[in-house]
Structures are given as C-alpha cells and as structure tokens.
Specification:
single chain, 341 residues, mainly alpha, Arc Repressor Mutant, subunit A, 3 domains, three-stranded antiparallel β-sheet, 5 strands
C-alpha cells in the first residue's frame, strides 16, 4: 500500500523538480498526478491550488485546479526549496550577473537594440562544459520563463542550440546572489506588481512572479483572475492569453497571429456585442483607445491571411514584427478587464 506523504506540498514541488532535472522540461499535470497518486495517494489537483504562486505556476485561473495537459512549472523560488535545486538556482544567478556584465561591455548589431548571447558564449563565460547538455538546457528554460530583462530567445532543438536577446533591463540583476536578491531586483525594476520577496522555507510567500519577454502584461492576468468566478467564466480567456504570450515570446508568428485573432473573437459578449467590429464601433472608447481598437480591427484581416491563405508559389511574408504593438493589445485587454468588474 502507498504511504501518504507527510507534506503533500513539498512532495508535489519535489516531483516537479525531479522531472525537470531529468528531462529539462516542465511536466504536464496528468503525469505528476498519476505518479503521486500511485506512490503516495496525493491529489495533485487539490494540493496545487494551495501552493503559493511564488513557488508554482500552472498557467490557469488562480484558485482553479490544473487538469490534463496543463503545464506545471516551478519558479526560481520553488526550485530553491527542492533537494538538488540549488545548483540550478546558483547557475541561473551566475548567468544573470554574467549577462549584465556582457551587456554593459558590448554593443548590439547595427539596427538592433539588444545584444545576442548564444549557448556556447554563455557556457564559456560560466565555465560550464558543453557536454553538460542537460544543465544548459535547464538554464535555458529558466532564462525563458523567468523575468530578468531578456527580450526574446530562439532555440534549435535539432542541434541542441539556443540564444537569448539581452536588453538594458538586465542591469538590475548585476549583483544578484540569492533568490531574495533576485526578487528584490525584480521588484525594483517592475514596481509594486512584482514579487517582493520570499519568506522562510517553512512560511511560503503569496507573491506572484512575471515571466520574461511578455507580450501580455502580467497585471492583465491578475485583473482577469480576480474577476473569474463572477458573472463570466474566464477559463478560456486566461488560457488564450497565456498561450498567446507563450507563442509571442517563442517567436511563433503564425500561432501568435491565430491566437490573437481567436482572442478578439472571444471577448465581444463582454461588451454586449456579437462581433469585434461591433465592439469597435459601438463601445464608448476614448480617443486614444478608439485608435488602438481600430488597429486591432485592421489586424483581423491580417490574421485571416495567416489562417486561410492556401499554399502558393509566392511565400507568405508575415512575421512577429507584424503583430500589433504590445501597448495596443494590453490597453484593449485592460478594457476587457474593466467590463468583467
């Protein structure tokens, strides 16, 4: 008979990290749930809801249990609490210090505003042998998910190579040597909506963390999560937002176009309308917001191109640069959040 765990929260967090350490990717809920139910009779869905977001992110609505294919990811603070996690934490913090020094001494390529750092460059700078592939893959995952001043990344899994774009904001992390330093630097950079610290390991904090290179402002997620469970069910809305944000940061142009189009088609009922064109024309937008919404109306034709143009001899030339500006999308989403209240 399986022996029930004395500390289910710690068992869940450790199981997530063990998978991450072995595979360099975060597991889906179903995998961890089956594993811990069979070995310790732990209901991962129930336990996950009780773990503070400063340690665990499930990419679903706050307070709603993960299910099925939902990814479960530990933050840097969560990894620190795990047996064996200190190595990944220390490597990530060393990487931030190295990236901050590198950005300070090197100029971007002509026409660019960020400095490119490759896997090989960072491994050499940190004196990590390239043969330690798993360790470097885990480092990339942390650089991908955590928010530290990176402004994009790319990865070629076929040859196990990756690169990150380093922006000026990495300077905030020049002296980080602990998770507490990291959270304080993040708070100093992002202000009151950033995580401000971690309490002792026996008293978890309830702060939340933002992710690197976001398209959707994390405050939008917070506003919509607060409204979830009222008049409107925001589950699908939150999933669309998270997948849009993930694909934007991953540089997946077609997916990002399609997801933003799906998002625009999803929200008209919040405004008492049945189509996005009606939202644009009938809602009392202010002067600036009205201009933003008109840009999103025009974008729908562009998204139609992505979704419906069939294969031809002429290449499709759409790219991430053709996505609407971040400010336009977030201002519209703030209007959506206001309608939820």
């Amino acid at each position: 008979m399986p022996t029930p765990a004395k500390d289910p929260q710690r068992a869940v967090i450790q199981a997530l990290y063990d998978h991450f350490r072995s595979h360099a990717v975060w597991p889906e809920f179903d995998r961890v749930d089956r594993q811990l139910w069979r070995t310790a009779k732990i209901d991962v869905a129930q336990v996950a809801v009780s773990i503070p977001e400063v340690f665990l992110v499930t990419h679903g609505p706050r307070g709603v249990a993960p299910r099925g294919h939902d990814m479960m990811r530990l933050t840097l603070a969560g990894i620190e609490r795990c047996d064996g996690g200190q190595d990944d934490v220390e490597l990530f913090l060393r990487a931030l210090r190295w990236l901050a020094r590198y950005e300070d001494k090197h100029d971007p390529e002509p026409g660019e505003t960020t400095v490119i750092v490759t896997r090989a460059m960072l491994a050499k700078g940190l004196r990590v042998p390239l043969r330690e592939a798993g360790r470097l893959r885990r480092l990339f995952e942390l650089l991908y998910w955590e928010r530290w001043g990176g402004e994009g990344n790319s990865r070629n899994p076929d040859i196990d190579d990756w690169r990150v774009k380093v922006g000026r904001d990495v300077r905030h992390f020049l002296r980080v040597r602990s998770v507490e330093d990291f959270l304080e630097a993040t708070a100093g950079w992002l202000g009151p909506h950033a995580p401000i610290g971690v309490e002792s390991r026996s008293e978890p904090s309830t702060a939340s963390q933002e992710e690197a290179g976001s398209y959707i402002d994390e405050r939008i997620f917070d506003l919509i999560k607060q409204a979830h469970g009222g008049r409107w069910d925001c589950t699908k809305l939150l999933v669309l937002l998270r997948e849009l944000d993930d694909n934007y940061r991953g540089g997946n142009a077609y997916a990002a176009h399609a997801l933003l189009r799906a998002l625009l088609d999803h929200v008209p009922p919040l405004f008492g309308q049945s189509s996005f064109a009606q939202v644009a024309n009938n809602h009392p937008w202010g002067r600036t917001d009205g201009k933003y919404v008109k840009r999103l109306v025009a974008f729908r034709d562009q998204a139609d191109d992505v979704m419906h143009r069939q294969i031809a001899r002429i290449p499709c030339l759409l790219s991430m640069e053709d996505m609407p500006p971040r400010a336009v999308v977030n201002r519209f989403l703030a209007g959506c959040a206001d309608q939820l209240g």
